[in-house]
Amino acid sequence: MRIPKFKDHIHPIVVEDDKLILSSEFGQQLLTGKSLIQVARYLDGVKSVDDIIQHLDGVVDAQQVLYVLSVLKEKKYIFETKHKLSVSESAFWSSLGVEATVVQKNKEQARVRIYTYGTAESSNFIRQMNAGGLPVVGEAENLAVILTDDYLQDGVLEKARELWYQNIPFLICKPNGIEIWLGPIFRPGKTACFDCLIQRLIANRDVEVYLKETGKINTPLVAASSLPSTIDTSLSTALTELLKFIVLGHNEQLENKMVTIHYGTLETNKHVVVRRPQCRVCGTPDTDRIPENIQFQSSPKSFIDGGHRSVTAEETYNRFKHLISPITGIVNKLERITNGDDVLQHVFISGQNMAIKTNNLQSLRKNLRSNSCGKGVTEIQAKVSAIGEAIERYSGVYRGDEPRHLTSFKALGDKAIHPNDCMLFSKKQIADMELWNARESFFNVVPLPLDENALIEWSPLWSVTRNEVVYLPAAYCYYSHPDNGGEHFFCAPDSNGCAAGNTLEEAVLQGFMELIERDSVAIWWYNKLKMPELDLESFNDDYALKLKAYHKSRNRDMWVLDLTGDSGIPAFIAISARNDRTTCQDIVFAPAAHLDPSIALRRALTELNQMMPSMDESLPPGQYRYDDPETVHWWQTANLENQPYLSPDTRRPKSTADSFAVPRFTDIKNDLEYCVEVVKKMGLDMHILDQTRPDIGLHVVKVVVPGLRHFWARYAGGRIYDVPVKMGWLPAPLNESELNPISIFI
Fold first, then answer.
1. What SS3 class is residue 305?
2. Which end of the chain, N or C, is less surrounded by CB atoms within 10 Å?
3. Architecture of domain 110-272
């Protein structure tokens, strides 16, 4: 260092003969020492080291001068003044720890090219670049900027891919709108690519997707809310971030992130962009892979959180909270819908249900009003539950990078599972398909019979009971699969058996419990069985008793029925009805199942909490905050007199916490081994589809046990007729025409 000087962002102030304060925007530092003060007086950017030594001859020894300079340099307080930058620019970069000479060199080596799309213009940006001493080129660029009025604008994706394949880093910016978008900066081979971002953007723009697919629009709906000042400020900010990338060689604020600035509120948010290992541009998709032999691993039960968990809810939340974003997330919001002061009912919604395909106005309307939802005994449990459901739904949507095999049912032979062995529509339902589908019920759509010779895509599942790979139609395993439309509509995918977990074992257990829950509900509901009440006091659960009292305070009675059947796994349904009127009793219900009856009870009660926000007491009787026609019709017409099976069977003793002979284990692995044996004893098979997405990391599975029944209207022969007789609940099976005519609507 020939001519040293305090860095331009530092103000040196001598306060005493042996004390020096270095002041900057970031605070102050006190340095002490008489020799330090003497040297500091000559650090003016004019005098060389030799000059300083000469001026201090006889005052400070030369070696001491060199020592002081070395200490100041090591602490990055001084720098070499030989550069062409202005004082303010030098101060900016020195505050970031960059020498002015490095700034000059990196700026001179940058060759930036600008691309514009839509209504975006480059003139202001070029002017600002020229003022900042940054060259703009028309070819042979080593860095690019894409300015666009919308990230989905025509041509942007193609240019982004071209730059990626040419190994050219680039920054993208949307300077228009009251909320501007800045970034990410894409670095080929090091960050997520633009395709990774686009996949998330499209997933969060349901209305535009619908409008484009139906031909209502051809281009994106561009944000028009801008001022000349907001455009200039946006471009200036973009240029600053570009310069930081050029000078520093990286930009942690915009690599794998984008920033939004809302000029109406000055709110600034960061949105994480996740690199997708399965991406066709920057990843390595493997659509031919076959599921491995699933061997359940040890997963000790460390916490009880709506089920047995291996980590706390807080840990899970911190691990996945980066997925919350209306732009780049799969959880586009996390919003409490119960009163914040309510210590019993914690319910959160986590954005639109991504499992609902918006290919018509009805499904669009359903999607806009349907949200992934989470509940829990505590607020953090409810948040994690909502995030988990959003991830579960997202993971079940077909995207084209899933393992699949093109063949026919007959060609697969005994390794193929017929979709109706899982759906269980009766021959009469299929014959009356037009009548069923004319109801336009979202829950009870009857598909066409499968053409067993047709070439369709099949998803591989691992059969735990058969110890081999089996196949189900991909259109049954994933929402929005292209095989499942028009004349090829041969199955109705649903979320039954789908679950998320911190480990594969957690997810499989939760998925199987859902199958038991819904099978138990179907047997009870469609046979209109009177079932025993659960003795809540026997559980020694203050939460259950407090919740019952809460319902009482709202002129409601709450009780829980025991639906446990031949599996022996505790299955309950919580029910709440108004007690201040005999008609329009606003009856809500929520089921749950679990090996631990205490957990099954908690899950049913918290699920019931999820239903309660629709019951707005400020509205007149018969009006609600939810407008699904089937649900509203039930609330308006059902009462305990015309639906007597909802009331407990008072002829039978109440079930208590000790009524269930289910073994207790300390490891989820042992729970699963027990469940597999239960399935075998019922004469059924258990298959597992791993839907875990590499870009998410939370385990998601779909557990399939053909023969266990969804609680929607599925009337084929089997357990719905056989179990009531087997358990002694009915003397003989009902006929299909005798089943409950009301289809379940949740």
1. coil
2. N
3. 3-Layer(aba) Sandwich (3.40)
